User: What shape does this take?
Amino acid sequence: MSSVDNKLHAQLSERMVGYPPRSQDNVKDPLVVAKLFDVAGSATWWLTEYDPEERIAFGYVTGMACDEWGYASIDELADLWMSFVRDSRRNLLRVETTQRGIGIPRIELDRHFVPRPFSEVKASIARYAAHCHLPC
Assistant: This one.
């Protein structure tokens, strides 16, 4: 897949210049430079570093089985697409994961996210969880 095929890669390559892998290893409160989110789910990736050659991002993920620091393949995230399917038994639309290019991309860059220290991101996650009565 070329960078032209992968909108997330192109966006992160531009936004995360100066934040290569391991660039924030010794930073006590790393800067979260970009935010990706699942438009049809709860997963959110708070990215601190990006390797444009390997297309691997490092950051903190929330909204999955557990919140944790780790690596994410941007190509794999860009391959997640979805469409809406009518469920006639319940008279509603449901999300169905599809093949790349069918429907709409499921993972998007939050274009309005302003980079901030991880401590601020973590505090906002905790406030949201308390408001929603979710475990942290």
In short: The chain has one domain: 7-132. The chain has a mean pLDDT of 90.
